[in-house]
Amino acid sequence: MLVIEWQDCLSVGVLEIDIQHKLLFERFNSFLQACESEADQDKVHRLFWFLEAYAVTHFTEEEKLMQASGFPDLPMHRKQHAEFAAEIARIKERLRCEGPSPTLVSSLTTFISDWLTRHISQMDRAIGNHLQRSAP
């Protein structure tokens, strides 16, 4: 089974953000499992839409923390979030048209795994460092 794994090295040191990241990994793996088990299309679509909505909610929460703490790289971070959301919208349309084909699921897994790992280990870690330095 395809799976993306949470690793402790991805912790950004902010419990709220780490919990949300772990849930993103768990929910994406639920989506992959549904695709591999050839679950009904409605379940696959519901899981994907949940992921999409949860990512937006998570991004909003992160951006609120950045705004409140005066995080200097907020514009760049927002840009990356917007680019991720745009790619997810494109994938959602492909999923709607094609269904969870092995090719689509494989490319989605690669995209999500690479993006989350890179974004968390670089951009989100910078937020964690900033929040820890600015904490009273």
From TrEMBL:
Residues 16-127 form the Hemerythrin-like domain. Signal peptide: none annotated. Pfam families: Hemerythrin (PF01814). GO terms for molecular function: metal ion binding; oxygen carrier activity. InterPro entries: Haemerythrin_Fe_BS, Hemerythrin, Hemerythrin-like, Hemerythrin-like_sf, Hemerythrin_metal-bd. Gene3D superfamilies: Hemerythrin-like. Keywords: Iron, Metal-binding, Oxygen transport, Transport. Belongs to the hemerythrin family. NCBIfam families: bact_hemeryth, hemeryth_dom. This is Hemerythrin. It comes from Geomonas silvestris.
